[in-house]
Design brief:
Layout lengths: L2 H15 L12 H7 L5 H11 L1 H4 L11 H8 L6 H13 L1 H9 L2 E3 L5 E4 L2 H46 L6 H8 L6 H14 L63
Antiparallel strand pairs: 1-2
Length: about 260
């Protein structure tokens, strides 16, 4: 247990569990106590306390508990809870983050009927706030560590994918390839096996068809199938279809670099 946790227990829990002065009862045999108190799980104990005392344990709203409230519970619900059951429940209840938030903000403690009965000391409020700050710090560290772990896993996967890509295309010998990539010949097969498995697990990307359909108005399923549609009447045909020279005669076709065949 950390120092902060000990402070919270000392300030908000241990005093609640301490028996009131003059209330000490003679010790009872363990067998008699076990007979008088029914066995129940922590969840069953919590549900029973909520049913018996909804003003303080029900409603989903935490309230700082009156000190030594365990003695009050045993007095008002005799033989229904053992000391161990109540101690376990109160440790969980007063250690809950919601309870600590309430303890850090409240001004009073409350009894089993939900009535304010005593002022809450600044020492106890401060202990609750310090514990909350400690928990927030741990949470932030955990989130940062998890993000760093995810980033590292993604980087390693990218590196393995690059290694496999290069291995499948290299012309180098195995020793030279390993030296280039900074891996040993013993490590390489395992890395390549993982990379292949990761590649196989990736979703297959659908390739775009060569004829993907119209890309604009007036175009058919293939380029040129509807070329010329919608062109104003009388407009010359496009170059390559035998462009006229004004006398109805077509131009001579040029070679690969634009020089007319035979004009040398």
């Amino acid at each position: 247990m950390t120092a902060n946790e000990a402070a919270v227990d000392a300030a908000a829990v241990a005093t609640d569990l301490a028996p009131a002065e003059g209330d000490a009862a003679p010790a009872e045999p363990a067998a008699a106590t076990a007979k008088a108190t029914p066995e129940m799980s922590p969840a069953e104990c919590a549900a029973k306390l909520k049913a018996l005392f909804p003003a303080i344990f029900g409603g989903g709203v935490f309230k700082p508990l009156k000190l030594r409230i365990q003695a009050d519970i045993q007095e008002r619900a005799p033989a229904q809870f053992s000391k161990a059951q109540l101690s376990s429940f109160l440790r969980r209840h007063t250690g809950n983050t919601g309870y600590l938030i309430a303890l850090g903000k409240a001004t009073h403690r409350f009894d089993l009927d939900g009535q304010a009965v005593a002022e809450l000391s600044e020492e106890h409020r401060l202990a609750a706030r310090e514990e909350l700050a400690r928990r927030r710090g741990l949470q932030q560290e955990r989130v940062a560590a998890e993000q760093a772990e995810r980033d590292l896993a993604q980087t390693q996967a990218r590196n393995r994918a690059g290694l496999l890509h290069d291995f499948e295309r290299t012309t180098l010998t195995l020793p030279n390839f390993c030296v280039l990539k900074g891996v040993t010949e013993a490590e390489l097969p395992g890395l390549l096996e993982i990379a292949r498995a990761e590649r196989a697990a990736q979703p297959v990307r659908e390739a775009r068809p060569a004829n993907a359909g119209p890309r604009g108005p007036g175009r058919g399923d293939g380029r040129g199938d509807s070329r010329g549609a919608g062109r104003p009447a009388g407009r010359p045909a496009a170059r390559g279809d035998g462009r006229g020279n004004g006398n109805g005669e077509g131009r001579e076709q040029r070679g690969p670099r634009g020089r007319a065949p035979g004009n040398r």
